[in-house]
Design brief:
Layout lengths: L1 E6 L2 H13 L4 E6 L2 H4 L3 E2 L7 H10 L4 E4 L2 H5 L2 H7 L4 E2 L7 H4 L1 H11 L6 E4 L2 H8 L6 E5 L8 E4 L2 H13 L10 E5 L4 E9 L4 E3 L4 E2 L2 E3 L3 E4 L4 E4 L6 H21 L6 E9 L5 E7 L6 H5 L9 H8 L14 E8 L23 E5 L2 E3 L5 E3 L3 E9 L2 H14 L13 H6 L4
Parallel strand pairs: 1-2, 1-4, 2-3, 4-5
Antiparallel strand pairs: 6-9, 7-8, 7-9, 10-11, 10-16, 12-15, 13-14, 15-18, 16-17, 18-22, 19-22, 20-21
Length: 428
C-alpha cells in the first residue's frame, strides 16, 4: 500500500509512526513532512495548503490512501478534489469540515440536533456585538468563528474584556478572515475532555479519550496556545459517559449533517466540558485528529487500529466494536520555542539524546534539518515528547525526563502535563 499523509507537524509524524507500525510494508509519503517523517518515508516538498499540487502528487506517486492531517486543507476542499480524481481519502468533505471551519455553523448544527452546548449568539457587525456584550453575564467567551489555529477562543472575565476582544476581532482584524464573524458564548465550568471518534457517517468507533493542556504555563495559567501537552487515558471517563457522548453528541450530529446533504467521514473530535451533573457540553468540533492529542492517543491504540482509516476511506467499513480502549498510558509534553505563541524564535540548534529508550517517543513538529544534518527550531511548537507506561503518573515522569534532556536555546515547556490525572489517582 502507498500512503500519503498530508501535513508537517507532530500530529502527522504520529500518524506516520502509527501507520508504519501497523503496516510496515507500506510505502509512506508526507507532504510537506518534517525531519521526523523523513525517517519513516519520503517527504514531498508540497505545502499542505497546495491542493492542486497534492492532487497531482497523489496521481504521480500512485497513492492508494490519503490521510489528511490539518484542518485547513480539508476546509479548502482537498478531500473532495482527491475523491473526484479517484483517490481513497480519510477525511471529511469541505461541506462537512464546516463543523470546524465555522463555529457559527457548528452551533447551528448542534442547536438543530439537540446537542448540549453553551447558549450563544453570532455577530458579523461590531456595534450589535458590543451592545449584546454590555448586558451579558460574566465571565463569558468570545470566539473567532473561523480557523484560528486553536487560539481563537478567548475566555473573558468581564464584559469590558469581552468588548475589547470583539473590537480586536471585528474592528481591527486581529484574526484576519477567521475573526470576521464571532460567536459569543456563556461560560461553562467543569472539566474538559477530548473525545475523538472515527466514523463513516453512520457507524462510530470512539478512540481512547484524552485531555489536553492549552495554557502556556504550569498550573494552567498564561495565554492560550495550540496545546502544550496531552495525556491518555482519563480516569473520570466511564463506559456510561462514553455511551452518553455517543447518544447525545456524536450520533445526532452525524444525523443532522447527513440530513443537510453533507455526510461526515473521518475523525470527529468533540471538545467537551463535563458539567457537574455529568452532561457533556460541546465546546467545539474539530474535523481531524487533535494536536497534541494525536501524539498521546495514537501510541496507545492496539496494533492494527489504523486499518480502520483505510477501511472507512474505501467504503464498506464494518467495525467490530464501539470503543477502542487504551492499551496503556501516554503523556505528551510539547517543547516550544522562545516567544511562543505570539512570536516564536526560530533557528536554534536542537540536540536530541541518543538513548531515548522504548518507552519514549519524540515526534517532530516545528523542526528543520540543514544540509549538514543539523536539526533546528523551525516553528512555535518544536517537539512532542510522549512517555509510555502502565499509569499516567509513570508516563508523565518519563515524558518530563526526556523533555528535560533535549536541549535548544529558549526551550519552553510545562513540567505538569497530566497533573489532574496524577492528583486524581492520589499519586505523590
Amino acid at each position: 500500500m502507498r500512503i500519503l499523509v498530508v501535513g508537517g507537524g507532530g500530529r502527522e509524524h504520529a500518524l506516520c509512526w502509527a501507520l508504519k507500525r501497523d503496516t510496515p510494508e507500506a510505502t509512506l509519503f508526507t507532504a510537506p513532512g518534517n525531519p521526523g517523517t523523513a525517517a519513516l518515508g519520503t517527504n514531498l516538498k508540497i505545502p499542505a495548503s497546495a491542493v492542486d499540487g497534492l492532487v497531482a502528487a497523489a496521481a504521480e506517486q500512485r497513492i492508494d490512501l490519503v490521510v489528511v492531517g490539518p484542518e485547513a486543507p480539508l476546509a479548502a476542499g482537498l478531500a473532495d478534489r482527491l475523491r473526484a480524481a479517484g483517490r481513497s481519502v480519510f477525511g471529511p468533505t469541505q461541506a462537512a469540515a464546516r463543523l470546524e471551519s465555522s463555529k457559527a455553523f457548528a452551533k447551528e448544527v448542534m442547536q438543530r440536533a439537540g446537542v448540549p452546548t453553551a447558549p450563544s449568539r453570532t455577530f458579523r457587525e461590531l456595534d450589535p456585538a458590543l451592545a449584546y456584550l454590555a448586558t451579558h453575564a460574566e465571565p463569558l467567551v468570545v470566539k473567532a468563528s473561523g480557523l484560528a489555529g486553536g487560539k481563537g477562543a478567548v475566555v473573558c472575565a468581564t464584559r469590558a474584556a469581552a468588548q475589547r476582544t470583539a473590537r480586536a476581532m471585528l474592528g481591527e482584524g486581529a484574526f484576519g478572515e477567521a475573526g470576521r464573524e464571532i460567536v459569543v458564548e456563556e461560560f461553562l465550568a467543569g472539566e474538559e475532555l477530548s473525545v475523538l471518534a472515527v466514523t463513516d457517517g453512520e457507524r462510530i468507533v470512539i478512540l481512547p479519550p484524552a485531555q489536553d493542556h492549552k495554557r502556556l504555563l504550569e498550573g494552567d495559567t498564561g495565554p492560550n496556545t495550540g496545546g502544550m501537552g496531552a495525556y491518555c487515558p482519563v480516569g473520570l471517563v466511564t463506559d456510561a459517559l462514553l455511551e452518553r457522548v455517543r447518544r447525545q453528541v456524536l450520533e445526532p450530529t452525524l444525523q443532522e449533517m447527513a440530513a443537510r446533504g453533507a455526510p461526515y467521514q473521518g475523525v470527529l473530535y468533540a471538545g467537551l466540558m463535563l458539567a457537574p451533573d455529568g452532561t457533556p457540553y460541546v465546546l467545539e468540533f474539530n474535523c481531524r485528529f487533535g494536536d497534541p492529542e494525536a501524539e498521546a492517543v495514537l501510541p496507545v491504540l492496539p496494533r492494527g487500529a489504523t486499518s480502520q482509516l483505510a477501511a472507512i476511506a474505501g467504503g464498506g467499513w464494518r467495525p467490530d466494536r464501539d470503543v477502542i480502549p487504551a492499551t496503556g498510558a501516554a503523556v505528551t509534553t510539547v517543547l516550544a520555542a522562545r516567544g511562543y505563541p505570539e512570536q516564536p524564535e526560530v533557528g536554534a540548534t536542537i540536540q536530541l539524546p541518543p538513548d531515548l529508550g522504548d518507552d519514549v517517543l519524540v515526534f517532530h513538529a516545528g523542526t528543520a534539518r540543514d544540509a549538514d544534518g543539523t536539526l533546528r527550531v523551525a516553528g512555535g511548537r518544536v517537539l512532542a515528547v510522549t512517555g509510555l507506561a502502565a499509569s499516567v503518573a509513570a508516563a508523565a515522569e518519563r515524558s518530563a525526563g526526556v523533555a528535560a534532556r533535549i536541549t535548544f536555546e529558549g526551550k519552553a515547556y510545562r513540567r505538569d502535563i497530566g497533573w489532574r490525572e496524577v492528583a486524581r489517582a492520589g499519586t505523590p
